[in-house]
Amino acid sequence: MSDLKQLFREKAELVAAKVTSIKSMDEAYAYAAKYVAEKNPCELLIPSSPNTPQPEFAAEKIMAAPELSDEQYAALEKECEANNVKLIKSGMRDYMAGIDAGFTIANAGFVETGSIVQQSNGEELRLATMVSEAHIAVLSASTIYEDSIAAEKLLLELMSGVAYTAVITGPSRTADIERTLAIGAHGPLELHILLLED
């Protein structure tokens, strides 16, 4: 397993993901809250001119954490309160372009591409992973697979219902315009993978 973890880290970092090892979910909550508290405000909320009013919530640091259990949400909320970060579970559409980070728990990781697999049962989690400036995902080391073929059984389970399953590789990027690489064009500027030892 340690070889898979190391290979996953190397592959994920090659696609600009930031990988950090953690030993508990409490460490994940502390990491996420501290990251949001210390980051610059969402770039999309910075006024284009001094005369452009900024939305009222722009001064707040906001983290979205949908689909966590009540216990997980309460623990993360405690860390957020200690760091003066507003935590939301729903209502992502009211904060478009104003969510500093989305916090999720990934279902799996693929060594081959340094990707994580994220299943969501509703729009809120999809928005949290797509409109936040940063996506912070907890990945259990025991759910790392060599590739999608090795994870076939899990993928079939994840895709058997009406849920949405995404494979996320690094931060959002595109080179559609004049073949110039742009980070964050269609999603988060950063992907933080918190590798949970289990």
What would you note in describing this structure?
Helix content is 28%, strand content 25%. It has 5 helices and 12 strands. Strand 2, helix 3 and strand 3 (86-88) form a beta-alpha-beta unit. Helix 2 packs across helix 3 (70-82). The mean pLDDT is 86.
pLDDT averaged over residues: 86
Globular, elongated, flat, extended or rod-shaped: what is the shape? globular
Strand order of the largest sheet: 1-12-7-4-2-3
- How many individual helices? 5
Short account of what is shown:
By secondary structure, the chain is α/β, with parallel strands linked by helices.
How are the SSEs ordered, and which strands pair?
Elements: H1 2-14, E1 18-22, H2 25-38, E2 62-64, H3 70-82, E3 86-88, E4 101-105, E5 108-110, E6 115-120, H4 123-130, E7 134-140, E8 144-145, H5 152-158, E9 164-168, E10 173-174, E11 182-183, E12 190-196
Parallel strand pairs: 1-12, 2-3, 2-4, 4-7, 5-8, 7-12
Antiparallel strand pairs: 5-6, 6-9, 10-11
Helix pairs in contact: 2-3
Notable traits:
globular, 25% strand, 198 residues, alpha/beta, 6-stranded parallel beta sheet, 4-stranded mixed beta sheet
